[in-house]
Amino acid sequence: MEVMGSSVDDVPLTCVSIKRRDERKTLSYLPNRPPVDIEFTDLSYTVPQGRKGKKIILRSVSGLFRSGQLTAILGPSGAGKSTLLNVLAGYRYAGATGSVLVNGQPRNMVQFQKMSRYIMQQDLVQPHLSVHEAMRIAADLKLGSELTKKQKLTLVDEIIEMLLLVKAKNTKTSRLSGGERKRLSIALELINNPPVIFLDEPTTGLDDLSSSQCISLLKMLAQGGRTVICSVHTPSAKLFAMFDHVYVVAAGQCVFQGSGADIVPFLYTVGIECPTHYNPADFVIEVSSGEYGDFLEKMVAAVDNGHCYCWSQRYTGSASHCKIEANDPTEDDHKLDFSSSCWQQIRTLTCRMLLQMYRDRSYLYLQGLMYLFLIFIIGSLYYNMGFDGAKQLYNFGFCYTCIIVFLYLPMLPVLLHFPSEVQLLKREHFNRWYSLRAYFCALSIAKLPLQIFIGTVYVCSVYWISNQPLELARLCQFLVICLLIGFVSENLGLTISSRLDIVNSIFIGPVLSVPLMLFAVYGMGAGTTSIPIYMRVLMCLSYLRFGFEGLMYAVYGNDRSMMPCPPEEIYCHFRSPKTLLLETGMENSNIWVAVLALTAYMIFFKAMSYFLLRWRLSRHRDFAALNYVGRIIKTHFNFTQQHK
Ligand SMILES: Nc1ncnc2c1ncn2[C@@H]1O[C@H](COP(=O)(O)OP(=O)(O)OP(=O)(O)O)[C@@H](O)[C@H]1O
């Protein structure tokens, strides 16, 4: 393959030249954004490996990605394409060194995040919504009151038309084809016209036609003045010809940068000839992965590891620096803060969550059926025992059962659902759809109505079937305590699943519940003096204990009168409610203490889940200690290694 002594001009160019339709379309109401050039110099990225080791993924690469150009990052698998994209987009930059300049100025991460959007490889889109609904909600979140409702609808319709989604406008996102889903992901990010768009492998999983549509669309966006950068896996010759700028990575280094048409002459200068009719994209990847011998060093040297911003056949010798001037600094022009207020975000997100809950009927029915099943089982087991002086130990069990129900039923759905929701949250939050605070408030509000309704139906039913004292005050106290236990459990579930994936969450949640249940009843009947102080502290750590005391107070406290005993019973030890409270050590229980303690636990777990989520969403070292603990847990105790 090596060709020595031939002139570059002799090299046949095999890139296909394709005549493109002029697809430049204008969108009404899109805010104008100034052009943005991204220049990076000596960028390195390492990840910790093993006890003290490090793995170098990017090795001092440089480059320039200009506005108005569609840039492709190519390279063999594992070369570092996604990593380069992640570092440039700012999705991961702890561990990166080197400089990234935005229009010639050092990148201000907060500013840059406002002007760039990152469309990741997995097309995560909100479930249970149609394309039009998803777009409308995204417009409400991203544009706030910047545009009127009518203008937003016009803009949404225009983007839907531009991205060839008209036929799928009313289709649910879960039923979209791969190509439609990819186009929807792009459409959602186009709403507030970001000047910089990063895409990780936008054509993976698409057929030739969909890939071609997708790249044409990106080309059109770039022609509109945006900086569009995407990593691509072995594009066809037709797709390859659509890219304005090609950046090839191999083993974490830059082996070519410039126009796609220059790849063949470039390879020729390093001593390897591309066979006629061979796709240059395939060929450069094969050469980079060492299939034709070791040309890596020569290629890296020829483009000076990316310092040569645009290799061209006009420049022959190695390290030819065909520098291009970047745009003038225009960062101040980017007034890209959230257009919607926090309150607008909360309202839109709450509506979205409620709509999704309503649409997820199968889950609603399943939840309703589960509660009905429990009402039936618990109602049958404890039927009419609440007012029978001889059955009060059974009734004690009834109260305990209610606690277990309100421990598991609100917690398990969260452990199952939330880890996958966090993936969506990560994408939307990174692309600045809304603030975490707004999301968290909406999450807390949207879950309330169903939980209160279903909990009330359950409590009233079992309370009545088991014949507990029919006094409104006692019923209300019982209900409030049960609902509060449910809220705490739900927030405990959020705390667990905000940092772990589904498998780990579903394991940790029930395991953590065991000590909580044990300490809820530990030492009952033994009297407080015989229980060591540390055990009493541990007992207080179980919010279920406070809940249990609250329920017992609701049923037996507040001077409840003696209960009748069936005539066949000779001795009814617990017919006096005070006796039961005394023997279980709950004679001093107080409803207010229970309510306050449960509320404090609820706030604690809510705050914990909020901070854990913030930590998960943060890409820098704000939470150094937590990051260290997280790394230890991931390395040594993780049951799956799937989540990032
Ligand atoms: N957090 C990490 N810890 C250890 N190794 C990592 C980590 N992230 C990436 N790598 C390694 O870095 C290399 C580059 O990964 P990257 O995902 O950037 O490759 P890629 O070029 O996008 O590959 P592909 O085309 O197959 O997606 C791979 O060998 C990968 O295993």
From TrEMBL:
Keyword list, A-Z: ATP-binding, Membrane, Nucleotide-binding, Transmembrane, Transmembrane helix, Transport
Single GO MF descriptor: ATP hydrolysis activity
Residues spanning the membrane: 363-383, 395-416, 436-466, 478-496, 502-521, 533-556, 591-613
KW GTP-binding (keyword) present: no
Membrane topology annotation: Multi-pass membrane protein
Keyword field contains Ribonucleoprotein: no
Entry's localization field: Membrane
GO annotation, cellular component aspect: plasma membrane
Gene3D superfamilies noted in UniProt: P-loop containing nucleotide triphosphate hydrolases
Annotated ABC transporter domain residues: 38-276
PANTHER family xref list: ABC TRANSPORTER G FAMILY MEMBER 28, FI05267P
Family the entry assigns: Belongs to the ABC transporter superfamily. ABCG family. Eye pigment precursor importer (TC 3.A.1.204) subfamily.
Official protein name in the record: ATP-binding cassette sub-family G member 1
Species of origin: Cryptotermes secundus
The encoding gene: Abcg1_1
